[in-house]
Write a structure and sequence with these properties.
The structure holds 2 protein chains of 2 kinds. By secondary structure, chain A is an alpha/beta fold. Chain A is 29% helix and 20% strand. Chain A is globular. Classes of the chains: A alpha/beta, B alpha/beta.
Chain lengths: 821, 468
C-alpha cells in the first residue's frame, strides 16, 4: 500500500468555503485551519470515541440542518456539507459541557503539575462561563501509583478515556481500564507481571488534565512556563525520535515528545522519556579520574589532559605511526566522529580507528557490505505504508521502540502485514506472523528463503515458510534487519544475503518495490559509518582509511600491535560480543584512555577517564536509520564536561599538533565534502531534519551465493544462549537514572516454562550460566531449547557466559552455597 | 374504546393483581408440546404453534417475509417505534460473512413488565418469531439478551431452547429443510444501559456495556462487526401472528399510523395493576379505568407517564383523553415509549418521584459521555438537597439548564431519558418544588433566628467529605 494521494472536499464552514481532507474527521481539518473547536477525548492516534461532547457543531446537508448538534471528531466531510462552529446554539453547548467537566474537577491549578499546559485550563479560559454553579460535594478518591513511572490523581480525571484508548488501541498493553459505572467510575491500572512498560509515558502527554503525571517530575521540576525548551533528538535508538529537552535553572527538567509526523507522530518510549535524570545525576563525571595501581585520583580536566598527553606523547615518540587504537560508541554526534577521525589520522597517525558498533562482525566492513547496507534504504513513512513489513533478527519494540509501536498500529488499524523472523518471540508479535529460525542459523534461513523464492537450490522448512508468506507481499514490502544480524558471526554474508532476498522478493512479486533498512544498534551508527568511510562518501580528505571495525582494533591490540587504546563512550567489556578479546586487548596495551560521561566496567580498567558531556550537552548532527539528518541541540543546561571535539582538540594541543577545528568546522567539512549532506547551515538546521539519500563510491561486485551453511544446534542437554538487545539495559544513561534503579530491569535468564519444568527450575530460582548467576524467569516467548539473556548488563555480562558467537550452555540450578559465595 | 374490546394475541385476557402468582396458575404455554397444540397466534385463529415458521420455510422467500411484515405496519415495541420490516430490509443482502439477529430482552425501563411475560409464559412464540426473522434477514444465529435479574425468564427460555434443539426445530437442519438456525440465550449483568442497542452488542461481545458510535449502524456493522438486526422481544413475538393471520389482520386493528396491538403494563396508583394487550389508539382513560380498575377511592389523577420512567409526565385528568398510540402520546406531550404506564395520583410528591428517577439514572449511567455522567449525578444531588431542606428557587432554573446540557447532547438516549421526566416535572409541576423550597426556607429562617447559624440544612449529613 504505497503512499496515496490525499483527496480533498470543499465544505462550507461559517459561510465560507473550506477545503478539507476527505479521510479525516472535520475536527482535525478545521483545527488545522485555525477554527478553535474545543475537544478532550479525541486524539489523532485514536479512533473517535465521542465521550466528551465538547466538539459539537451544527451540521447541515444540502441546506437541511441535522436536528441534533453533531460531534465533529466523528464526522467526515462530504459534498453538500455545511458546518456552523460559531452560532449561539454551539457556543451554549460548549459552555454547558465545560461546566459538566468542571463540576468534579478540583480547582487546584496553582499546585497542579499540568497547570500551564492543561487543555481543560485553556478551554475553560477560552470557552467557559467564568463561574461555577456547583455547590454539591465533589467526588473524591485517593491517588494511586499507576505503574513505576506514573501517578494517577483521580480527582482531576475528567473521564475522557484517552489513556484507556491508548493502552487498548495503540500499545496493546491494556494497562488501564474503566471500573464501575457512571459518575462513580474510575480508571484502574493493571500492571502485568514484572515486565517494565515501554510506552506508558505517552498517557501523560495525552491526558488533557493533570490526572496522570510522571513520578520523577511531579512537584519537583517547576512549572511548564519556567522551562526552556530545546528541540533535540532521542539518543537511545536509531529511529531518530524527536524530543523537547526541557531545562530549568541550568538543570534538565524533563523530556517530552516533539511531534515529527514523518518519524514519531509524537510518540516516545519510556526509557528515553524517563532517562533524563541521569543527565544531571551526581554520578556523571565532572572531573577526570586517573586509575593508577589500584588507586583512583580525581583531578581537574586540564591537568588530566596534560598528564594524558604526556603519556600518549611518549607512546607516539617511540612508535610514531599505527600504534594507537581508537574506538567510539554509536551515540556521539557526527561532528564528534569527524573530529575523532582527524585526531586519529592527523595526530595519532593511525589507521586503527573505528566508530560505532560493529555492523559487519569481527571481520570488519568491506565495500560489498557497505553497499548492501545502503541499498534500498527508504523513509519511515514508506516503511510504515508498505503492505508487508518483514523484520529479520530484530525485535523492533526493543531496538527501535517507536518504529515498532507505529508498525504495530499500522498492522492493527490499517491491515498491513507484519512478518517477524527472529530467534525468540516478543510482545511485538501479537499481531504479526512470527517465524523462528533457530538461533545461529540466520544466514542459513535467509539463503534458504532466497532459494525457495527463486525456485532453485537447497532450502529449509523455515525458509519455505518465510518464502510462502513473501510470495504475495502486496503493493510493496519493507525489510528491517537488526541486532541479531550485527551479532551474527557471519554478519558480512548475512547483510549481503538480505539484498539477495530483496531481489528475490521483488522478482516473486512482479517487480514490486522492496525496501531494506537496517535498524542500527545505536542512535548515530549511520553518522559513524560516514566518518569511518569518509573517503568513500565524500571527497578524499585524509590518507588513512579506517581499519574496518572495532573487532579489528581489539584484535590488533590483543596481538600486541598497539601500544595505546583510546575508548570513547563505549562500554566494551559489558557490551562487545567477545569479552575475552576485550580483556586481552586491555591487558596488552600499555596505556588505555577512556572518554565518557559515566563510570562503567570498561572505564575502570583504563588508566585515564576523561569526563565527557552527554548527548544533551552537545550540539551535533545525528543520522537515523532512514538517513534523516537531524540536529541534536544542546539543552539549556549547565555542563562542566567538554564535548568530544573539545577534548580531542585539547589533547591535540597538549601534544603540540595544533587545533583540529570546532564543531561548526566539522559540520562545514561534512557539508562541503559530502554531496548528499543537507545544504542547511549548522546554526539554523531545520527542526524536523532533512532526509538524504546516501551515495558512496564503491567498487563492489558480487554474485548471489546459494550454498547453505551447516545447521547449528546445541549439544544434548544444552540450551542455546541468546543474548538479546533490550531497550532496558545497563547503558550509561539508564544505569545512572534513579528512576530505573527503583524498577526491575530485565536482567534475568528468560527460559521456556517447559524447559524449566524439565530441569526442575521454578520461576525466580537462581541459575548458573557459565560463571554468571541470574534469576530464571519462565516466559512463553522463549523457544524451547534456548535461554534469552540481556546482552548489556554490568552484573551479569552475557558476553562472559560462554565463548563468543553461538554457544550452547548447560543450565543448572545454582546451589544455595553457590549463590551465597 | 373505538374498536371493541382489548384483546390478547394468545386469546386469553390476562389480568393479575400480583403478576407472579397469576402466571404460575393461569396461562403459560411453556412446553413445546402445549405450544404446538394449544397456542393460537390470534384470538380467533386456529390453535397450533410452529405453523408459521414452517409455512415461511417452505413457501416464502426472505423478501416476501419482509414485505409481509412491512405491509403489516409492525412498529418496534422497544420504545422508538421504528418500522420492523424496514429495519430488516437494511441488512446488506450480499454480505459475505455471517449476519446476526439480536433480541433485546433487557427490559430495564422502570415501569415496564411485558417482555418477561412473553419469555416466561410463551417462550416458543419468541423462538418462532426469531426463526422467521432469521429467515428474513439471512442470519443463522440469534442472540437473545435477557436482563440479568430475570432469572425465571432465563431459565424458562433456556428450557424452551433445549426442547427445540432436541426436536430439531433449531440446529443445523431445522424442520428438515437444511437451514441452519441457532438460538443463544445470553444474560446481562444487571445494567440498564445494556438495553441500549449498541451497548447490548458490546455486552454480548463480552466488553464493557458502553454504547458504540453510530454510524456504522448495527444493521451494517453490529455484533462482532457483522450485520446485526436488533429487535425487541415483543416485536419478534408479533412476527408469527403476522405470517399466520396475514398483514391485513394487523392493519385492521389499531390506528392508521400505529397498526396492530401492543402490550401495556400499568403500575402506580391504580386498583388493579397488570398488563394487557390492547389495540393502539385505545384512550388512556379506558386502560386506567376499565382494565386497571381505576384510581383508588377519593383520589384524583395528578399525572401520568404513558411510556415508562424516561417519558415526560402528562399533567392532570387530560391524560385520560390521550389515545394510546405513538402519535397520540406525542400530541399529548409525552411519548409511548415501551408502553409502561405509571399512574400518579394526588398523594404523590413529584419531587420525590423525580429524586427516585434521578437516582436510578445516575446509578445506571454508564459513564461514557460527560453530560449524562455528570448531569445525572448533579440532578440527583439537587433533588436530594431540595428534599433535605436546602433548596432555593434558583435550583429550578439550574435544573432546566442542566437538562438543556444533557438533552440531545448525550452520546446515547440514556441522557435524554434522564432529562425528559425531570424537565416535565419542573415545567408542569413547579408547585411541588416550590412547596419544598418555601417550607425549608421558612424552617431555615426560623433556625437561623433561633441559633444564629446560617448554614443550609442538609449539609451536615455529608459534611466532612472534601468539597473543593
Amino acid at each position: 500500500m504505497a503512499i496515496r494521494a490525499i483527496e480533498y472536499v470543499t465544505i462550507e464552514v461559517d459561510g465560507k468555503p473550506v477545503s478539507l481532507r476527505k479521510d479525516k474527521p472535520i475536527l482535525w481539518g478545521l483545527r488545522d485551519k485555525g477554527y478553535d473547536i474545543p475537544y478532550f477525548c479525541a486524539h489523532k492516534w485514536l479512533d473517535p470515541l465521542g465521550a466528551c461532547r465538547m466538539c459539537m457543531v451544527k451540521v447541515s446537508w444540502n441546506g437541511r440542518p441535522m436536528p441534533k448538534l453533531q460531534i465533529s471528531c466523528a464526522m467526515l466531510p462530504g459534498e453538500g456539507m455545511s458546518v456552523e462552529t460559531n452560532i449561539e446554539e454551539v457556543l451554549t453547548a460548549r459552555r454547558e459541557q465545560l461546566e459538566f467537566h468542571l463540576i468534579n474537577h478540583p480547582l487546584e491549578c496553582p499546585v497542579c503539575d499540568k497547570g500551564g499546559e492543561c487543555m481543560l485550563q485553556d478551554q475553560t479560559y477560552e470557552h467557559g462561563c467564568g463561574e461555577g454553579r456547583y455547590t454539591e460535594n465533589k467526588k473524591v478518591r485517593p491517588d494511586r501509583q499507576m505503574n513505576a513511572y506514573i501517578q494517577i490523581n483521580y480527582k482531576r480525571c475528567i473521564h475522557c478515556k484517552r489513556c484507556v484508548g491508548f493502552t487498548d488501541e495503540i500499545d496493546n498493553s491494556h494497562l488501564l481500564k474503566m471500573v464501575s459505572r457512571g459518575a462513580e467510575s474510575w480508571i484502574e491500572s493493571y500492571p502485568t507481571s514484572d515486565d517494565l512498560p515501554y510506552f506508558s509515558g505517552n498517557v501523560i502527554d495525552i491526558c488533557p488534565v493533570g490526572a496522570l503525571t510522571a513520578t520523577n517530575y511531579r512537584f519537583t521540576m517547576g512549572r511548564p512556563w519556567e522551562q526552556e525548551l530545546t528541540a533535540s533528538v532521542a539518543s537511545l535508538d536509531s529511529t531518530g525520535v524527536n524530543i523537547w529537552l526541557n531545562g530549568r535553572l541550568g538543570h534538565v527538567a524533563r523530556i517530552i515528545p516533539r511531534e515529527n509526523e514523518g518519524v514519531d507522530t509524537g510518540m516516545l518510549d519510556d526509557a528515553t522519556r524517563f532517562s533524563w535524570e541521569a543527565i544531571d545525576d551526581p554520578a556523571r563525571l565532572r572531573k577526570a579520574l586517573i586509575h593508577d595501581e589500584g588507586e583512583t585520583r580525581r583531578v581537574k580536566l586540564a591537568m588530566a589532559e596534560a598528564l594524558c598527553a604526556e603519556q600518549l606523547g611518549a607512546v607516539l615518540s617511540e612508535h610514531p605511526a599505527d600504534s594507537v587504537g581508537l574506538v567510539a560508541g554509536g551515540n556521539r554526534s557526527t561532528e564528534e566522529y569527524m573530529s575523532l577521525r582527524h585526531f586519529a589520522t592527523r595526530v595519532l597517525d593511525s589507521r586503527w580507528y573505528s566508530f560505532g558498533e560493529d555492523l559487519a562482525g569481527p571481520e570488519g566492513m568491506s565495500d560489498v557490505v557497505l553497499e548492501a547496507l545502503l541499498a534500498g534504504n527508504t523513509s519511515i513513512e514508506h516503511i510504515l505504508s508498505a503492505s508487508t513489513i518483514l523484520t529479520i533478527g530484530s525485535d523492533l519494540w526493543e531496538e527501535a521502540p517507536v518504529l515498532g509501536l507505529r508498525a504495530n498500529v499500522e498492522v492493527r488499524k490499517r491491515h498491513r502485514r507484519l512478518v517477524n523472523l527472529r530467534s525468540h518471540g516478543s510482545s511485538a508479535d501479537d499481531f504479526a506472523e512470527y517465524i523462528d529460525y533457530g538461533y545461529g542459523n540466520l544466514l542459513r534461513t535467509v539463503r534458504a528463503t532466497v532459494n525457495a523464492l527463486n525456485g532453485n537450490g537447497e532450502t529449509t522448512p523455515e525458509g519455505e515458510r518465510l518464502a510462502e508468506s513473501l510470495r504475495s507481499v502486496g503493493d510493496d514490502c519493507a525489510i528491517l534487519y537488526g541486532s541479531e544480524v550485527w551479532k551474527d558471526a557471519a554478519a558480512r554474508e548475512l547483510i549481503v544475503a538480505i539484498q539477495d532476498l530483496r531481489e528475490a522478493v521483488r522478482r516473486a512479486n512482479d517487480g514490486c518495490s522492496v525496501y531494506t533498512n537496517p535498524v542500527y544498534p545505536a542512535a548515530n551508527s549511520a553518522g559513524a559509518l560516514l566518518a569511518n568511510w569518509f573517503t568513500k562518501f565524500g571527497r578524499p580528505a585524509s590518507a588513512k582509511e579506517s581499519c574496518g571495525g572495532v573487532g579489528r582494533v581489539l584484535q590488533a591490540a590483543a596481538d600486541g600491535q598497539l601500544q595505546a587504546l583510546v575508548i570513547c563512550d563505549y562500554d566494551l567489556l559489558s557490551s562487545y560480543p567477545d569479552r575475552a578479546l576485550v580483556e586481552k586487548a586491555l591487558a596488552k596495551v600499555k596505556l588505555a584512555i577512556y572518554l565518557g560521561s559515566f563510570e562503567n566496567p570498561t572505564s575502570q580498567r583504563c588508566r585515564f577517564h576523561m569526563p565527557l558531556g552527554t548527548w544533551a550537552h552537545i550540539d551535533g548532527s545525528v543520522v537515523s536509520l532512514e538517513w534523516r539528518v537531524q540536529k541534536r541541540r544542546r539543552g539549556q543546561i549547565d555542563s562542566v564536561a567538554p564535548s568530544l571535539t573539545e577534548l580531542v582538540n585539547g589533547l591535540s594541543g597538549e601534544l603540540g599538533r595544533g587545533f583540529l577545528g570546532t564543531t561548526e568546522d566539522m559540520y562545514g567539512q561534512l557539508r562541503h565534502n559530502i554531496e548528499f549532506w543537507p545544504r542547511d547551515e549548522f546554526a539554523d538546521f531545520p527542526y524536523k531534519g532533512v532526509l538524504v539519500t546516501p551515495r558512496a563510491r564503491l567498487s563492489a561486485s558480487r554474485s548471489p551465493v546459494k550454498d547453505l551453511p551447516a545447521e547449528r544446534r546445541a549439544g544434548a542437554g544444552e540450551l542455546v544462549l541468546i543474548p538479546k538487545s533490550f531497550l532496558y539495559n545497563d547503558r550509561d544513561l539508564l544505569a545512572n537514572s534513579p528512576v530505573f534503579a527503583r524498577v526491575a530491569m530485565p536482567f534475568h535468564a528468560f527460559m521456556n516454562p517447559a524447559d524449566m519444568q524439565a530441569q526442575g527450575i521454578s520461576d525466580g530460582d537462581s541459575v548458573a550460566l557459565g560463571s554468571v548467576q541470574l534469576t530464571a524467569r519462565g516466559r512463553d516467548w522463549v523457544r524451547s531449547g534456548s535461554v534469552v539473556v540481556n546482552d548489556f548488563c554490568h552484573s551479569a555480562p552475557a558476553n562472559g557466559m560462554g565463548a563468543a558467537g553461538f554457544t550452547g550452555l548447560s543450565i543448572r540450578k545454582a546451589s544455595l552455597a553457590g549463590s551465597q559465595s | 374504546m373505538a374498536k371493541g374490546n382489548p384483546i390478547l394475541m394468545n386469546g386469553i385476557r390476562h389480568e393479575c393483581i400480583t403478576p407472579v402468582s397469576a402466571l404460575d396458575n393461569e396461562i403459560g404455554i411453556r412446553s413445546l408440546a402445549d405450544y404446538e397444540i394449544k397456542a393460537r397466534y390470534v384470538p380467533d385463529g386456529k390453535p397450533g404453534g410452529y405453523r408459521a415458521i414452517q409455512h415461511v420455510l417452505n413457501n416464502m422467500s426472505p423478501e416476501q417475509v419482509i414485505d409481509e411484515v412491512k405491509a403489516s405496519g409492525l412498529r418496534g415495541k422497544g420504545g422508538a417505534g421504528f418500522p420492523t420490516g424496514l429495519k430488516w430490509s437494511f441488512v446488506p443482502k450480499d454480505h459475505p460473512g455471517p449476519k446476526y439477529l439480536a433480541i433485546n430482552g433487557d427490559e430495564g425501563e422502570p415501569g415496564t413488565f411485558k417482555d418477561r411475560y412473553i419469555m416466561e409464559d410463551c417462550p416458543h412464540r419468541l423462538i418462532e418469531g426469531a426463526m422467521i426473522a432469521m429467515h428474513a434477514i439471512g442470519a443463522e444465529q440469534t442472540y437473545c439478551y435477557i436482563r440479568g435479574e430475570f432469572y425465571d425468564s432465563l431459565r424458562l427460555m433456556d428450557e424452551a431452547v433445549k426442547e427445540c434443539y432436541a426436536k430439531g426445530y433449531l440446529g443445523d437442519n431445522v424442520f428438515g429443510t437444511g437451514r441452519r438456525m441457532h438460538f443463544q440465550v445470553h444474560t446481562g449483568a444487571g445494567a440498564y444501559i445494556c438495553g441500549e442497542e449498541t451497548s447490548m452488542l458490546s455486552s454480548i461481545e463480552g466488553s464493557r456495556g458502553h454504547p458504540k458510535m453510530k454510524p456504522p449502524f448495527p444493521a451494517i456493522e453490529g455484533v462482532f462487526r457483522k450485520p446485526t438486526i436488533i429487535n425487541n422481544v415483543e416485536s419478534i413475538a408479533c412476527a408469527p401472528a403476522i405470517i399466520d393471520a396475514g398483514a391485513g389482520w394487523f392493519t385492521a386493528r389499531g390506528t392508521e399510523k400505529s397498526p396492530g396491538v401492543k402490550i401495556v403494563s400499568v403500575s402506580g396508583c391504580v386498583r388493579n395493576p397488570g398488563w394487557w394487550e390492547i389495540e393502539y389508539g385505545t384512550p388512556i382513560g379506558v386502560i386506567v379505568n376499565e382494565l386497571a380498575g381505576g384510581l383508588l377511592p377519593g383520589r384524583k389523577l395528578k399525572g401520568l407517564i404513558p411510556g415508562g420512567s424516561s417519558c415526560p409526565v402528562i399533567k392532570g385528568e387530560a391524560a385520560f383523553d390521550v389515545p394510546f398510540d405513538y402519535e397520540g402520546c406525542v400530541a399529548g406531550g409525552s411519548m409511548l415509549g415501551s408502553a409502561a404506564m405509571i399512574v400518579l395520583d394526588d398523594s404523590i410528591d413529584m419531587v420525590g418521584v423525580m429524586r427516585n428517577f434521578s437516582k436510578f439514572y445516575a446509578h445506571e449511567s454508564c459513564g461514557k459521555c460527560t453530560p449524562c455522567r455528570e448531569g445525572t449525578r448533579w440532578m440527583l444531588q439537587i433533588h436530594q438537597r431540595i428534599l433535605d431542606g436546602g433548596g432555593t428557587m434558583e435550583d429550578l432554573d439550574l435544573l432546566i439548564d442542566i437538562i438543556n446540557g444533557i438533552e440531545a447532547k448525550s452520546f446515547c438516549p440514556l441522557g435524554d431519558a434522564a432529562a425528559w421526566p425531570v424537565r416535565s416535572a419542573v415545567e408542569r409541576f413547579p408547585e411541588d418544588y416550590i412547596a419544598w423550597i418555601e417550607k425549608s426556607s421558612r424552617f431555615n429562617a426560623l433556625r437561623t433566628n433561633g441559633n444564629g447559624s446560617a448554614s443550609p440544612a442538609g449539609s451536615e449529613e455529608t459534611a466532612g467529605v472534601e468539597a473543593n
